[in-house]
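Deliverable D4.2, example record:
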Amino acid sequence: MILATTNTGSISFEAFIASYLDDVRYELIDGELIDLEPTGLHEQVAGLINRKLNVAIELLDLPWFIPMKCLIKPLGLNSAFRPDVVILDQTALVNEPLWQTEPVITLGNSVKLVVEVVSTNWQNDYARKVEDYEALGIGEYWIADYLGLGGKRYIGSSKEPVMTIYQLVDGVYQGTQFRGEEQIISPTFPNLNLTAEQIFAAGR
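Output generated by the structure prediction step:
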């Protein structure tokens, strides 16, 4: 498989969509093909979160859904993120320019919540994606670090598993962390019955 590249040798967004849209192993950051390195345990954590959030959507009878596959295109030219879980507002998708032909989201108000389960490339989840999801205006962003892989700046020196939930407040993300038996507090789902430990246990 040959990918078209830009003048700088990087992969273009269009070439990535053409060749890797259906390959859940890869995403694109600044023209670089990123191997998401999913493991079975990673998928167990993502699966639990998916199930819990689907139940929450159903209980509230909301016009939201979790797509089986979806890319989020941040403001940069040659990037395409593949979140582990994303909740879309079906009523907002009429404004998405690419959605009718490809499962690609370009507008932050189409997204109610996005989740990244941390792998060895944790820098992307804690640094790059926080900035880009914030810039898009996505209201809530979860980072599920079930192995405590994040750097000390983000999770502290104990390097223990942690859930970080960012809420957009006046255009800026405010983060809250949850550990152990602490109840997850989600601005989008205030009645969600889920602890940090339940999420971490799914990855063992």
